[in-house]
Amino acid sequence: MTLHLLVPAGIDDPQRPSGGNVYDRRLASALVARGWTVREHRVGDDGPGRALAGLPDDALVLVDGLVASTTRALLAERDRLRLVVLLHMPGSGPFEPDVLVAARAVVTTSAWSRRWVLDHTEVPPDRVHVAVPGVDPRPLAAGSPAGGRLLTVGPVTPAKGYDDLLAALADLRDLEWRCRWVGALDLAPSFVDALVERAGTLGIADRLELTGPLAPAALDAVRADSDLVVAPSRRESWGMALAEGLACGLPAVATDVGGHPEALGTAPDGSLPGALVPLDRPAALAGALRGWLTDAALRHHWRSAAAERRGQLPGWGRTAACVAGVLNRIGPGVVHVGEG
């Protein structure tokens, strides 16, 4: 069985790493490992119309949500092709509600995203599925005794909440810490410039390191040299930065939004490997970070819970199995469902 996968043209752009691009790439590799034939079609600013028109009748097509949600092209092909939308972030484009209804199935990346689709569109519940992102096994980070090495991963944009993070860190000037911001710096350059200027005014610029995007191996090295992940995002469908940190045994302080609670999860005994804080409340974020930095018992508790949660995280093989199960019901014939 052949799967046609439509992805953004910049899927492999090292200057624009994203959770959605990582998901697409790792899913394709995991499906191939399971015996699928995956044919990738990269879609640029001109939209997917030409790629869709070139596919044979009855083809099985999985379309990245960023490609699907910004055009009506899929609506014209709904009867000819077996269309499935892989929705990384709900609300990604003006045509999303109609496109999701037209698709034969929708794959979301969290239970929160599935609920969003059911609440905001007319897609029947039996056509909306969940396949959470996987993680790769990683060595357990050693951690420093004081826990002052903080890490935030994601493009430096307002949506990722870096302004709230800066305000929270300013309240911690009396404590020892350093914070690395790993992510693109050119998506909202005026916002970045304002943060850097503000950090200088607050007297904490020398404690921040804005690295820009990092290659996977370099980011793994940064995680190994970190103590705590901080995720102040205003909207997240899952929380790959949390999950990938937990794969190293790193606890996290994150905003209580979207899929963050699912990604953070709990240890088998129900304890949180970190803390969830209210959205747009820098004081609450600062309070959680202060607790981590000043309470050795709390650090031990969070680290123990993170180490336990680490063993529960799914791999990409499980993600592929979930997606394959959906495609198997949509495809024109029997597809591979073996382990991979």
Automatic annotation (TrEMBL):
<dbReference type="InterPro" id="IPR001296">
    <property type="entry name" value="Glyco_trans_1"/>
</dbReference>
<dbReference type="GO" id="GO:0016757">
    <property type="term" value="F:glycosyltransferase activity"/>
</dbReference>
<protein>
    <submittedName>
        <fullName>Glycosyltransferase involved in cell wall biosynthesis</fullName>
    </submittedName>
</protein>
<dbReference type="Pfam" id="PF00534">
    <property type="entry name" value="Glycos_transf_1"/>
</dbReference>
<keyword id="KW-0808">Transferase</keyword>
<feature type="domain" description="Glycosyl transferase family 1">
    <location>
        <begin position="150"/>
        <end position="308"/>
    </location>
</feature>
<keyword id="KW-0328">Glycosyltransferase</keyword>
